[in-house]
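ugh ok so i messed up the first submission bc i forgot one of the chains. this is the corrected input, ALL of the components this time, i swear. 1291 residues overall. if the numbers dont match what u have on ur side tell me asap before i send this to the collaborators (the ones from the other lab, u know who)
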Amino acid sequence: MNDPRLPLPDLGLAPGASVVGVPMPHDSAALHASGEAAYTDDLPEPRGTLYAAVGVSPVAHGRLRSIDLRAVRAMQGVVDVILAADIPGVNDVGPVLHDDPILADGVVHFAGQPVFAVAAESVEAARRAALAATFDIEPLPPILTVEEAMAAQSFVLPPVHVRRGDAAAAFSRAPHRLAGTIASGGQDHFYVEGQVALAIPGEGGGMHVHCSTQHPGEVQLTVAHALGLESHDVVVECRRMGGGFGGKESQMSLFACIAALFARRTGRAVKLRLDRDDDMRSTGKRHAFAHGYDVGYDDEGRLLALDLTLASRCGFSADLSGPVNDRAVFHADNAYWLPDVAIHSYRCRTNTVSDTAFRGFGGPQGMFAIEAVIDEVARALGRDPLDVRKANLYGVADRNVTPYGMTVEDNIAPALIDRLEVTSRYRERRAEIAAWNRASPVLRRGLALTPVKFGISFTATHFNQAGALVHVYRDGTVLLNHGGTEMGQGLFTKVRQVVAQELGIAPDRVRVTATDTSKVPNASATAASSGSDLNGMAARDAARKLRERLAAHAARKAGCDPAAVSFAGGRVESGAASMSFAELARSAYLARVPLSATGFYATPKIHYDAKTLTGRPFFYFAYGAACVEAAIDTLTGEHRLLAVDILHDVGASLNPAIDRGQIEGGFLQGWGWLAMEELVWNGKGELRTHAPSTYKIPTSRDWPARVRIDFWPGENREETIHRSKAVGEPPLMLALAGFHALRDAVSSLSDYRFAAKLDAPATDERILRAVEDMRRRARDAA
Amino acid sequence: MHAEGADPIRLVLNGERVDIAHLSPQTTLLAWLREQRGLTGTKEGCAEGDCGACTVVVAQSRGDGTLAWSPVNACIRLLPSLDGKAVFTVESLRAPGGELHPVQQALVECHGSQCGFCTPGFAMSLFGLFKNAHAPSREQVDDALSGNLCRCTGYRPILEAAERMGEYDAEACGATGWRSPGVAADGSRIVSREEQQLAAALDALAHDATFDYRGEGQRWLAPVEADGLAEACAQHPQACLVAGATDVGLWITKQHRDLGTIISTAEVRDLATIRRGDDAFEIGAAATLADAFAALDDDYPELHEAWVRFASLPIRNAGTLGGNVANGSPIGDSMPALIALGASVVLRCGESTRTLPLEDFYLAYRKTARAPGEFVASIRVPRRPGGLVLRAYKLSKRYDQDISAAFATFALAMDAGRIASARIGCGGVAPTPARAVSTERALAGKPWSEATAAQAAEVLEAEFTPIDDMRASAAYRRRALGNLLRRLWLETGAGTDAPTRVEQLLAAG
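and heres the new structure output, hopefully the right one now
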């Protein structure tokens, strides 16, 4: 953006006006639109670069007796082939447990698991060669579903139980009780840029890896381990990703390791870019869940007792399944007070790809369960589900402790829902839709309003830290680096605004550079919605140190108090003296003032006991609610979104345009998860939906014409960066209102007497099945 | 080295004449742009024409001094097929002075990019729209973007950019010459002098005999007239016949196949025509899907929605109706409709031709009656008969750019309230595109009534034995197919005006 030919749009900013809270475009917007923004695969390749491809297991489970690689080695252009035994260091990329081999060793655990890798003179040669191996595998019985895993007690991690109060006693007191099950499917990230790494060997055994990752520090660690190096031998760099969504939090490590292994062996640069089909077969996805519930409630629908089972398909290894499932438990309350509750979390081990982080990180699945429970209770009582939701909301002064023992101090859910209920005209539309449905022979419309309360912080407390590095050059320009990564969420834009604000200069005087493990060490993954909270604070800390040094210098020159020096609009005022920021920088340089500073931040207040899952895992909560109208076709199950009203809490927004983008994009991605995107495995454990021809994410036509998005008018009560709130993940769960609008439409077929039997994703086929089931039940009851 | 008699590929890339020799004819346009030309603005997202990250715009001379502007997928476009055409990539959109093109400026100002990886593809699809429409409607915009996936934005800001891109002062943005808008407010075409020059330059590259390209031991033959195609097919009966390569492209990118000698049907001028005869449309095998569908809209507007939902605009710009028919996929969307209309396929071998009813062309899964050396010359579609009741229904997981779980076209010949005869073409429910003959019999001679529809729907549910796959279960396919006949009754016989399609509620919004 420092290119004068690519000016920022005129935002009408007065000189000296705040640059925080302004809807600035993404810092790379013009580069995106012009095709000049460089992603890993676009970087100039060093001379002699080789291309790698991965050979994968054809079966879901088996003992690898032997593998014949003669045809692979004989293919034209093949330079090197590696197996597990060729890894000089540790054959593992597990981010938590050490159960995630780079290349399968002895046993293959899923269809699509990398077993060997090829390096060749061209991408095509490498990919052809990777298909030429002959495997001799002794088949072992695979476990493919949650049900099979539960029956076999097959887990990647031990089950976790969280209890509060006495659910058994509460059941005996409850006037009503019901039980049921519901399931939610997995979801492929479908980042449009697939996994890609370019490893360049350096002197003295060093390795420089460019790759598309949300966690360069983790890639640095795993590459070092695989090669038998130390952390300081490996540099990992990423300027931007073409989408991440959690799919590049742990998943890049394996591919970066393979590229680095070949680079070490051949002394040449090696690039590994996955074809889309291979990416979808061989990388983890959102966890599919099977939920079971048993609930006791009163006449108003208040939940008195709840026994909830959350069982997830984790795939063959632990990966991030522990924290994902913990977060599912932490969000099984959503915004509701559950006085006597038992939550059981099972982390099922299956012979499928190891599932991983995906926007929401288990939170969506936890909320999915409780919202289904509420819907069942409402239908059983003949009440409007919104009334039952409101009756169960956490209190502000009491009824405000979560099942895991954290007091909800910032509960704005009741007020937020009340407001959305009015602005969306929920009650009027509910009546109008019910009347319309009675007269409609084929189509049915549905309406739902659901809340979101999402905990912000990594549940692993030590991840809640960040570092930044800020340089001021003597011409007054600023270079900013921090440990966060840019995947489209606008993190770099927001942090640039923060630093510009701190130094009183225009944002285009601050250049943000690629995330680089050699600049900021030990950075956490950019995940858990925490990017701006953590890196914004760390960068402000660094910028503040520089401002203080510059203020002290200006004060010395002007003979005034450093506290009286002000920075705004690119000018620095010190007593009677006034100079440009650039003049001050030059003067400070000549006076030998250090013009580089590091910044650091650690989130305060948080703590929790990982064994009992109790404590305060979250610094604060982000809230939101959506009112969604949808329609179904009772002949075919076809369905569409008709209208969306969203009221979302971003605190005091750092950048309203970016925050709105996160809300819109998160909502539609959530709708994809709940209503469109279906992962299908066959009985042999082969993924049948491994490309956009078979796996359907939303297109522009799925964005409804009637959408209203408002921000909740309030700032974060906690001291976050400029009192903003995290926004990356929470909006995804607003789409639950869409799923419940579909259930409402199905329920209309029984005049709302029964809850729909509808799992997610609500494909046409599942909706038609639910419609026919609902008609049957309505007939039987008549 | 140039093989004796072989021609280089001559194309215009971003305004510059480029000659290509030696590269394999199955090199994709995307691989060439990124790896040989260093034009990395065009991205690979899927390598199968389903995500649009690789969208570029191809300009072809219309032969009258104007250009046809078509967004296409570079990832499955074979390089020799660009011979004599102009290719524009995202790098070319900025004016020589560096100003962003209005489509780019609108994307920036509307916050239309987040990760930015899909953005060049969207910019090029929008540029195609910029050249082909003035102040496009939401429907036109959705259609133009039907082949572009964005995983970040939710599309709202991109839709807004499409709405706003026409509001900029194009001249002030440097969007002059070929970068200028293609359609004026009154709907007339704007043709700059630069475009006329480009059209003339492309005309000068046209071949008057078969284009014969060789590289890496492979040969590409692109005859320019049907006789030449017949000759090439006779000489190379085992050659891979390719038109738009929207399916063959995947044999290269996904199956890594060596296709050997490739014969392109796309440049055969006398097969690119669509003749509107008194009895039938004669749609030449080289006519694009977009052109063929536009012609059929004249007689059969009821099919328009099915055509909008046929793949994506870039695929319809590249693919041909002849290719879709010849490929014979059981889930292709044109055949069920054409079968219901009573279409036939004209096959040619050497000098002789034969005509088959389309349903008889399909013998078994992916097996057709086409003999080696034979090629599809044209598709013959009867003109609209009187008293026709026609509907085409597609069921798929997504409205745009999806493959049918089931597809049904119903054509009822009505005579004074009775069904004189019926033709029903189905896709996705059998190993080939198929006629539902039992159901047709159940309808023939009956009054068009609720009872007839209900009875025929039951027959239709039992008519096929579809499979379970990733798109739908067999049970759903059967049930939904019967329900589509029930829908047909509601829409064409029941006399109710209650909406029967969820899309109608969107329009009502």
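quick check: Chain A touches chain B through 97 residues (CB under 8 Å). that seems consistent at least. The first strand of chain A starts at residue 50 and ends at 56.
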